[in-house]
Write a structure and sequence with these properties.
Layout: H1 2-18, E1 20-29, E2 39-42, E3 46-49, E4 55-62, E5 64-71, E6 78-84, E7 89-91, E8 94-96, E9 120-121, E10 129-130, E11 138-142, H2 143-149, E12 164-166, E13 173-175, E14 178-180, E15 183-185, E16 188-190, E17 203-210, H3 214-217, E18 224-230, E19 238-246, E20 250-260, E21 267-278, E22 287-298, E23 304-317, E24 349-364, E25 369-395, E26 401-432, E27 435-450, E28 454-458, E29 465-466, E30 472-473, E31 498-499, E32 516-520, E33 523-538, E34 541-556, E35 564-580, E36 585-596, H4 600-604, E37 614-627, E38 632-649, E39 656-674, E40 679-694, E41 711-720, E42 729-738, E43 741-742, E44 749-750, E45 753-764, E46 767-774, E47 782-787, E48 790-793, E49 798-806
Parallel strand pairs: 1-7, 1-8, 15-18
Antiparallel strand pairs: 1-4, 2-3, 2-5, 5-6, 9-10, 11-17, 12-13, 13-14, 15-16, 17-18, 19-20, 19-49, 20-21, 21-22, 22-23, 23-24, 24-25, 25-26, 26-27, 26-28, 26-31, 27-33, 28-32, 29-30, 33-34, 34-35, 35-36, 36-37, 37-38, 38-39, 39-40, 40-41, 41-42, 42-45, 43-44, 45-46, 46-49, 47-48
Protein name: TonB-dependent siderophore receptor
Membrane topology: Multi-pass membrane protein
InterPro entries: Beta-barrel_TonB, Beta-barrel_TonB_sf, CarboxyPept-like_regulatory, Plug_dom, Plug_dom_sf, TonB-dep_rcpt-like
Amino acid sequence: MKTNFILFFCLHLSVILFSQTQIQGTILDENDRPLMGATVILSNYGGATTDEKGHFKFLDIANGTYTITVSYIGYTSQSKKQVVFNEDNIVVDFFLNANTEALQAVEIIGRRATTYKNELSFGATKTATLIKDTPQAISYVTKEVMEDRQAFRVNDVVKNISGINQFSYYNDFTIRGFRSQQELINGLRVIGLFGPQILTSNLERVEVIKGPASAVFGNSSPGGTMNRVTKKPLAEERKAITFTTGSFNTQRATLDFTGPLDKKGTLLYRLNIGFEDSNDFRDIQEFNSLMIAPSISFLPSDRTQLNFDLVLTSFDGKLDRGQPIFGASAGTDLNSTPISFAIGAANDYHETQVAYSTLSLNHKFTDNFSFNASYMRYAFKEDLFEHRTSNRFAVDGAGNEIPTLMGMRISAREQERINDNVSTYFLYEGKTGQLTHKLLAGYDYIQSVRPVGGGGIFTSSGAIYRTVDGGLANYDPEEANRFLLDDNGNPVPNIPHFNLQDPTYLLGFPSDYILGRNELAAQKFFTNGLYIQDQIKFKKLQVLIGLRQEWYTDKLNFEQADEQEVRQSAFLPRFGFVYSLNQSTNVYATYTESFQPQNPVDITGNINNTFDPQLGTMFEVGAKSTFFNDRLAVNLAAYEIKNQNILYEDQTTGLLVQRGAEEAKGIEVDVNGKIGRNFNISANYAYNVATITNSDDITEIGRRKENAPLNSGGFFANYKFDQGFFRDLNINLGSNFVSSRNTFEKDLVLPEYMVWDAGLAYKINKVKIALTFNNIFNKTHWVGGYSYVRLFPGAPRNYLLSVGYTF
């Protein structure tokens, strides 16, 4: 008996001393998505990496006390202590939060989250700042919204951003009532985006910095600035291919590959390719575009990060100048011509090539002091030949307008533009007493050049009738004998009129017409900016102070004997305050100014030569909150924007005078994120009163600005079934409404509209099939317009069907 007791005691003691335990767990991000490739270190044992499900496991762990440390690029590391004593299996899970301090100033590592909600932005402050902590409205659309909507062009997604609507078919928008054609890519200024719509295949998100951004970027629109953030490499393998077909003979394909190139994860890559070959609901229009966008990130250490982007895009199509309607008088029916109606010739073309490369560096000298630099070269080439409206209707022999015949002209040009953009700054993070600081000081240089060699052919928009002496002139019925007349006694046009009742699309060649030729003069402007900014935090209060001095120079008559420099400058302050009411809600207030230089020709052509740049101011207050465990973000803003020094022509003297002013007041709401596990939503609403407050033409005072709706908004919602008969099925529904808008014609108003979209998607293993119906009720509507001869209708009912594969 004693022997048995001793054996039992020894056996039990050996179990206690030598018991082996298994430790396992799962690592998820804040959106409950597994983090593949995360590093897990178990003290006094070794390390492991997580699999595609975010899972890790350590076997044969002896009794004792251990520390488990988890790290992942772009996320805050976590550690947990674990005591092991005779357990068989221990489960330790981790939830990592994105580290907004890890990558300061330039976005080197791609955003891994796959939700409608975006938490931080570099655009408004040049530092990695939570949108909640930024004292200015920032609206955005993530790549997930674009994917679910099957939005292939930027114009397809602006409906998901409050206070912004299309002005035309081009990259031309109204933001808070002000027309904006100035855009950024990754926070760097570009040009040449006014033409064909840009593909979204390589975009991580589209964000709009509301109100003036001049204190950060120099000259900018008072209403807001669009920033396109490109996809960056990820530290995990992801590959996806999608093929799409649909209405208007649409054929599309996209490819998105990313991951590490070495075992240590110090060299990452991403390759995005987008292709589209389609027609349009608009007559004779076509869209053929190819984009190739490789990107590489090099992370040699935790202090140095380097990224290189290259984007090559080619476009071959036509430039759609819009829909003309009968006549040009009040009360003309917008439906007098079908929305498919476009003017042009069968052999018109518009070919563009865009190539830009970006090199970005972030280096930390110490934990608190870093240097940031970005350089982008952006080159745009254009070859255009088009038959377009002369913005006038034909006249008969008596000089009376013929409302069904459109006067025509030709435009043709070849040109190239090259942008160089340098942004450098130092960032210091430290404390003075109880205050914490993010102190930023930097210098920007932007240069834009149109080199010698551009040219064009043209016909005048006014002198469109042929004279008996072989020339052209504006028809005068009092001197009818000077003009060639047809059998009906009507003047003969240089270019045949376009018949709005019986359109024909013939071939047209320059040799058929009397044309003028010109050289597109070489151009150059450059701007220098010095700025300093401090983001100060004291307990629940954050203060942003920014100061910028901008020097803008135009080279008038560039590379000619009479070349001269036209200089404009501005001092641009910015002040903002953020106060945290609680963990989920911040309130803020801000004051900032805008700067837009005047056309140098207007300045030098003026007698007194004293025109100041356009200057604007904005006051804004708002609140930013999160709900449902930070999964849903709701942002509210109220603002007042004033813009002055707008040039107008004096009706008496014909000289330019500087006394124009405009104003916009309004409120906006943006909602993005998740309600529950499976319900994603993006919603917005804007109420905006944008008016002319001072003008040389007193009839304009108090009039609402062009293409500035009083009300606009919409939503897009997607629900995923994760159980039952409909498991893995996604359904989505969206709507967009815009109230009536003025145009440049005082008596032409575009009607309000509401458009509904819907879709289904089903995922079978790694294959996803998606079907989207746009404008399901076939609502006739106009997204923008200039005049009776330049209207931009929205697309009728159409569908897109895609098949995607991820691996």
